[in-house]
């Protein structure tokens, strides 16, 4: 593999060798070995090979071209990569040519898109080409094109994701969810925008973000750390409040903090966490719950809810329904 890596860095590897290298790079230990050999190779080069000030440009273009190579190879074999729990890194490096020649070729580079999906009931984690980290909640998906980190950092999100963004003052990262855009340079924030939900929520942990609209040119809002913005798609109004951000971001660590939430709010979060459809009796709608779960099975969470409130569960087909436990209610009234 050392010979293929050297040929690859020198720009003379065949398509078959490129494909073999890309497959090999999927293993973490192989990526470490690759980066080590790449550093040794670069050190051995005569710095005068690069025009003045162009070595950084060469590295950027090298990253751009292999992403094109990777995406094309991925598409031609109809491979779809799904990420569960562990971080899977897309290291995209490419053939190097003269900077001014490659720059011209990039202008006509076909557009490819990479998708990262979190299956229902799963949490996924991925490192983007710019080094930013993304956690995807159950049933969520992001997509970005093959020039990500080269001339754009645009991401489309469906569902919920937590971002730790690498700072780049020249290229802001823009997350588009339905009709809300979140524009950042480098920060930590959470976006929840499930298609079936009336609310798009943005929670800022650190740094700063700017909210924009895909439909209204004069729509603009800046958030400070510790703030949560909620946009109602039906009422078309935006509210900003100070919150405990952990309440909205701890899901990425497998934890759900339920603090004084109604049955309606709780059921929505449980459906996302466990990929299970729930229903509840009308009289339970305003019952409030406070508890924390981490890696508990669905049965354990239901047991906990039944201890907190006078409720019982009934399985009706594929739906679990919460009902009022009248016997326990009478017992409470008697005492």
Secondary structure layout plus pairing:
Blueprint: H1 2-10, H2 15-24, H3 28-44, H4 55-76, E1 88-89, H5 99-106, E2 113-117, E3 124-127, E4 133-136, E5 141-145, E6 154-164, E7 173-177, E8 180-184, E9 188-193, E10 199-206, E11 209-213, E12 220-223, E13 227-232, E14 237-242, H6 246-249, E15 255-262, H7 263-274, E16 277-280, E17 288-294, H8 298-308, E18 311-316, E19 319-324, H9 326-334
Parallel strand pairs: 1-3, 6-7, 16-19
Antiparallel strand pairs: 2-5, 3-4, 4-6, 5-6, 6-9, 7-8, 8-11, 9-10, 10-13, 11-12, 13-14, 15-17, 18-19
Please, could you describe this protein's structure?
The chain has 335 residues and is an alpha+beta fold. The chain is 30% helix and 32% strand. It contains 9 helices and 19 strands. It has helices at 2-10, 15-24, 28-44, 55-76, 99-106, 246-249, 263-274, 298-308, 326-334, and strands at 88-89, 113-117, 124-127, 133-136, 141-145, 154-164, 173-177, 180-184, 188-193, 199-206, 209-213, 220-223, 227-232, 237-242, 255-262, 277-280, 288-294, 311-316, 319-324. Strands 1, 2, 3, 4, 5, 6, 7, 8, 9, 10, 11, 12, 13 and 14 form a 14-stranded mixed sheet that branches. A 3-stranded mixed sheet has the order 16-19-18. It has a two-stranded antiparallel sheet with strand order 15-17. Strand 11 (209-213) and strand 12 (220-223) form a beta hairpin. Helix 1 packs across helix 3 and helix 4 crosses helix 5. Mean pLDDT is 80; it is low at 46-58 and 68-102.
